[in-house]
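Progress report, Aim 2. The chain analyzed during this reporting quarter is listed below.
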Amino acid sequence: MSAPLKHRTLSAMITDQLRQAILDGTYPAGSQLRQDALGETYGVSRIPVREALFQLEAEGLVRIVPQKGAIVSELSLDEINDVFDLRVLLEPRMLAQSAPHFRADDFAVLDGIQKRFEATIAAGNRSEWGQINAEFHMAMYVNARQPRTQSIVMALLQTSDRYTRMQLSTVAAMGIAEREHAELIALCRDGKIEEACGFLEQHIEAVRSDLLRVVGRTIEKNGAA
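Predicted structure tokens for the chain:
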């Protein structure tokens, strides 16, 4: 059992590092990720590298192309709409089940994540925005008895991360995200669950609209170039 476990551990580590490199632009869209080169970089065989690439394909960050191998996925307006259609359908439903059961320690966790989010924005540390944003959303759904939906939403948030970093590239967008997260906490703390669910839906749709504008402009610029 030790060898398979070791491979899974290496694969998870490589997956995390490759995901981060794609999200921060080290490997831009269209880049080819060669298994042999990555194996040399990480000092491992091709097996954990291949497993990592399959995981990243499942997350939508790479495409496995016959005769070419793994290619970093292009930015896609269709993917944004697909991801956000699912998020707006699933997340308010989970919040409606989770929020009525919030206790003091749940709010303490949310407040702590919000403070980290504010500090990260103030520091301009873009590499942590997506991770903390995902933590915040998943903490909102902690009491939802929907484990399969939670795993789906977690995957959607990981896919969103690449786009969210682009959307949060302006001071105005960062300020809006910070204020809206704070408003969600306040509504839940006041027991206004239905209003919180409606606000969450608006929050997700607003991010989608901003992303379509930002990414659409980027795609148009790259196409023109």
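Residues 1-5 have pLDDT under 50 and may be disordered. The longest strand covers residues 62-65. These observations will guide the mutagenesis work planned for the next reporting period.
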